[in-house]
């Protein structure tokens, strides 16, 4: 009887461990951890570090009072955070493949999907990932690895890709060259 109880406990512990691993694999956070690349600040000629959590987004959104900012205000109201880390270097290839891989490995989970991958031997690589929560986008990550610049943009919360272009150049988000279908349609009508 004692052997049966010991084996039952062993089986239950194994099931509990497997269940915990399964849950943690599927319960990823849309927030990318950037601590593994902090050491690059000492090597960079310029570092940009933007950390705007949900509370700061709400405060900042109150200052967007211009009628032209209505779309931006509507977009950021539901966000949980905007995080940007960018390093510029005086020479090429100061950061390592391991630095890029430390970020990329976080984006390989089952919740993340890569939307875009541009690879240029001259200009570097740009990757865009979205984290899906059911049918909606719950987060976005942009990884840009150029010879003299390494940038990560992480937007946490529901993201409307059509409206995302309105955030470029604001909140520390660089110009990513995103064009909404509406602006493309209007451009084509003007021609």
Can you lay out the helices and strands and say which pair or pack?
Elements lengths: L1 H25 L19 E8 H8 L8 H7 L4 E8 L8 H8 L7 E9 L3 E10 L2 E11 L2 E8 L4 H4 L16 H10 L1
Description:
The structure is a single chain. The chain has a six-stranded antiparallel beta sheet. The longest helix is centred in the first third of the chain and has 25 residues, at 2-26. The chain is built from six helices and six strands, in the order H-E-H-H-E-H-E-E-E-E-H-H. A hairpin with a 2-residue loop joins strand 5 and strand 6. The protein is globular, with a radius of gyration of 21 Å. Helices cover 32% and strands 28% of the residues. It has one domain (30-174). The chain has helices at 2-26, 54-61, 70-76, 97-104, 161-164, 181-190, and strands at residues 46-53, 81-88, 112-120, 124-133, 136-146, 149-156.
């Amino acid at each position: 009887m004692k052997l049966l109880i010991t084996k039952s406990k062993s089986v239950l512990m194994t099931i509990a461990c497997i269940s915990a691993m399964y849950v943690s694999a599927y319960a990823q956070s849309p927030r990318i951890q950037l601590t593994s690349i902090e050491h690059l600040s000492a090597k960079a000629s310029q570092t940009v570090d933007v950390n705007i959590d949900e509370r700061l987004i709400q405060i900042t959104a109150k200052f967007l009072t211009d009628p032209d900012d209505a779309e931006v205000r509507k977009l950021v109201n539901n966000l949980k955070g905007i995080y940007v880390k960018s390093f510029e270097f005086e020479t090429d290839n100061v950061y390592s493949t391991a630095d890029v891989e430390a970020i990329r490995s976080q984006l390989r989970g089952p919740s993340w999907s890569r939307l875009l991958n541009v690879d240029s031997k001259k200009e570097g690589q740009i990757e865009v990932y979205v984290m899906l929560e059911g049918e909606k986008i719950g987060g976005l990550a942009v990884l840009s690895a150029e010879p003299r610049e390494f940038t990560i943009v992480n937007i946490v919360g529901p993201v409307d890709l059509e409206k995302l272009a309105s955030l470029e150049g604001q909140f520390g988000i660089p110009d990513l060259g995103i064009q909404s279908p509406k602006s493309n349609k209007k451009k084509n009508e003007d021609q």
